[in-house]
Amino acid sequence: MKSLSELRVQVFADGADKAGMIELYRQPYIKGFTTNPTLMRQAGVTDYERFAREILQLIPDRPISFEVFADDEIEMERQARKIASWAPNVYVKIPVTNTRREPMYDLIRRLSGDGIRVNATAVLALDQVRHIATALRGGAPSYISVFAGRIADTGRDPVPLMKSALDQIAPEPNTQLVWASPRELLNIFQADAIGCHIITVTSDVLKKVSLIGKDLHEFSLETVRMFHDDAARSRYTLELRPEERQTCGALSVDQ
């Protein structure tokens, strides 16, 4: 089995924990970073711009995506242009729609046409991919983040959809497909197998990197030991009833 460094798909770390991001920056297989307002809130970030600028000073040479948080197209555009001005390695995340179901394709077209690197995000449907790819045509290098993990959450296999998304963007040399919201380490290898350009991976999934190619018999034994040790630590017991003593004794004699 290939190691992460041998895969074609680029692994981007997804999160907003400053210390964790810096630690992952030291890993050569991490080719970029993404975050979003939800991850930032979970990490306790209270000053959006200060956090972003600190991260960009510490990580100046790999792509980093920061997301607008407005719900109005005009304010989204203002935020996008401001965020893009912070550093040349910034990609600006623009949601495919606002909360009123209004598509942001025109905004994506304007920003990309003006040289701003866009990461179109929260994409789940193929018609959305098609419209975004058209909007990005001829513009700056950009990403389309399809939330394959959320697609899988609906009971649908995301792999055929991601393959179709790759076909749709194939004529657009400046556009790369991102496999977003993966749920397990296997997704990295699935993304690589279909030729997806990028996959965003959370720290919880990255913690399992050491398991790649692990011997399954050894893994089985470790699992058995875990169950046994946890039962011992909990001091579980099952009292032997009188009628069971006779049965167990008979079994011992038969054996």
Topology:
Layout: E1 10-14, H1 18-25, E2 30-34, H2 37-42, H3 48-58, E3 64-67, H4 73-84, E4 90-95, H5 105-113, E5 118-123, H6 126-136, E6 142-147, H7 148-153, H8 158-169, E7 175-180, H9 186-194, E8 198-202, H10 203-206, H11 216-233, H12 242-254
Parallel strand pairs: 1-2, 1-8, 2-3, 3-4, 4-5, 5-6, 6-7, 7-8
Sketch the major β-sheet.
8 strands, parallel, barrel
Strand order of the largest sheet: 1-2-3-4-5-6-7-8
Superfamily (CATH H level) name of the largest domain:
Aldolase class I
CATH class of the largest domain: Alpha Beta
Average pLDDT works out at 95
Portion in beta strands: 15-25%
* Spans of at least 5 consecutive residues with low confidence: none
Helix content: 40-55%
> Using DSSP, what is the number of strands?
8
Distance between the termini: 44 Å
Number of helices: 12
Explain what this protein looks like in three dimensions.
- Strands 1-2-3-4-5-6-7-8 form an 8-stranded parallel beta barrel, surrounded by 6 helices.
- The chain is built from 12 helices and 8 strands.
- It has 2 domains: 4-211, TIM Barrel, CATH 3.20.20; 216-254, no CATH class.
- It is elongated and about 85 Å long.
- With 255 residues, the protein is α/β, with parallel strands linked by helices.
- Helix 5 runs parallel beside helix 6 and helix 6 runs parallel beside helix 8 (158-169).
- Helices cover 47% and strands 17% of the residues.
- The protein has helices spanning 18-25, 37-42, 48-58, 73-84, 105-113, 126-136, 148-153, 158-169, 186-194, 203-206, 216-233, 242-254, and strands at residues 10-14, 30-34, 64-67, 90-95, 118-123, 142-147, 175-180, 198-202.
